[in-house]
């Protein structure tokens, strides 16, 4: 996956921005939420940043769907192997 930011539906509390950042960087989710709350409390810019990220970031599931597609995987039709050959060459598979 490219180095892009995303938000997540799984584990979201409000919009999934903190869950997406925690997943991307491998951080602990509750710690990420506490740090985001502190940044929002200390500065008004944190609230604006969170709202902008919630609006413009795509969901991780949508990014994966665009990259890999959806639907069931299909097997190729294979020919049946003939086990009853008359060859007695000593090889057994």
Short note summarizing the structure:
With 93 residues, the protein is mainly α.
Q: Please, could you describe this protein's structure?
A:
With 93 residues, this protein is an all-alpha fold. The chain has a domain of 46 residues. The protein contains 4 helices and no strands. Helix 1 crosses helix 2 and helix 2 crosses helix 3. The model has no long low-confidence stretch (mean pLDDT 78).
Structural class: mainly alpha
Mind telling me the C-alpha Rg? 25 Å
Instruction: Please provide the ordered H/E string of secondary-structure elements.
Output: HHHH
Secondary structure tally: strands: 0
Distance between the termini: 41 Å
Shape: elongated
Multimeric status of the protein: single chain
Notable traits:
single chain; 93 residues; mainly alpha; 4 helices; elongated
């Amino acid at each position: 996956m490219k180095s892009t930011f995303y938000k997540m539906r799984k584990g979201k509390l409000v919009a999934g921005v903190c869950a997406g950042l925690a997943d991307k960087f491998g951080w602990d989710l509750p710690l990420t939420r506490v740090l985001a709350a502190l940044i929002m409390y200390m500065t008004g810019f944190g609230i604006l940043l969170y709202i902008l990220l919630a609006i413009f970031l795509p969901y991780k599931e949508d990014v994966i769907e665009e990259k890999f597609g959806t639907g069931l995987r299909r097997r190729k039709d294979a020919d049946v192997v003939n086990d009853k050959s008359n060859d007695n060459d000593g090889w057994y598979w």
